Amino acid sequence: MSERPPELSPQQLRSLLGTMYRIRAFEEKVDELFMRGEIHGTTHLSIGEEATPTGALMALQPDDYITSTHRGHGHCISKGADINLMMAELLGKETGYCRGRGGSMHIADVKAGNLGANGVVGGGIPIATGVGLSIQLQGNGRVCLCFFGDGASNEGTFHEAVNMAATWDLPVIFLCENNQYGMSMSTKRSMRNETIAQRATAYGIPGERVDGNDVFAVYEAVYKAAQRARAGQGPSLIEAYTYRYKGHSKSDQNRYRTRDEIREWQGRDPIKRLSEYLIAHNVMSQEEIKQEEAAAYQVIEDGYQFALSSPEPDPETLLEGVYA
């Protein structure tokens, strides 16, 4: 772990841990429900990546915007989403964020600044650039944080959108969650670059790779980029180098990587690292950390019970919100 940023209070440090535990608990519950057939379609879990969205969102203001991805549950939770509404959405209930119509890959909470997950790889990147232009024209001092994966960095939308944001000095932070595999394709085989952050040079903007399992490192990089964006100095590209313990999606048989590789990364677990830091620096005791963990899992269980008791959508309303 890097050293704690001095502006973070003990309460904020506890909040970081609580958020990471809620993400982990939510993802584990979703995994369980999918295996039991209670969630349909597919879902993409971010177990092992919790430090990146948690640190990034702590560095922003509540009224800043984000665009998300198909692996977006952690982004939602870090942005302050209501767990009840998230769980109801995944179970296809009327009380969900999108009235049960969006499911895992399309949760949005526009009022809270979460402009939505996106099932299209790289789909949120040009949206973020558009949001950045809107912010600039309004002069409201906000920023837009754009989450995307390593696979999306090879899409044309990435290059076009980053180039436009750089040319117009738009207040956008492009944050790549590099978990090293675009589906089953290793980044070592899909690009010649040593890092994705190096691509920032082509667009004349700052680029930085950080340890995506170190919540403080992510926080500091995003905080610095946000200050730069608010000062009218344009976008930044941050690469958070991290790892997902589970497969790409629930249909992934995970045959392209070894158990030893997964175990090695589990040894760098972001929650374990932050817990050990908080104990070593007398911010929380082992007992307090256990209580924080238990509270997170209880919140997720309460959300599941809320979803179970929620009504199914009325088939007569199926075409509401559909535009021709």
Automatic annotation (TrEMBL):
Which cofactors must be present for this protein to function? thiamine diphosphate
Q: What Gene3D superfamilies does the record tag this protein with?
A: 3.40.50.970
What UniProt keywords apply to this chain's record, in alphabetical order?
Oxidoreductase, Thiamine pyrophosphate
Q: Which residues cross the membrane?
A: none
Question: InterPro entries annotated for this entry?
Answer: DH_E1, PDH_E1_Alpha_Subunit, THDP-binding
Q: Which GO terms describe its molecular function?
A: pyruvate dehydrogenase (acetyl-transferring) activity
Q: Which domain of life is it from?
A: Bacteria
Q: Name one Pfam family in it.
A: E1_dh
The GO biological-process annotations, alphabetized, read as: pyruvate decarboxylation to acetyl-CoA
All copies of domain Dehydrogenase E1 component, residue ranges: 20-316
Name this protein carries in UniProt: Thiamine pyrophosphate-dependent dehydrogenase E1 component subunit alpha
> To which species is this protein native?
Ktedonosporobacter rubrisoli
Its taxonomic placement starts with: Bacteria, Bacillati, Chloroflexota, Ktedonobacteria, Ktedonobacterales
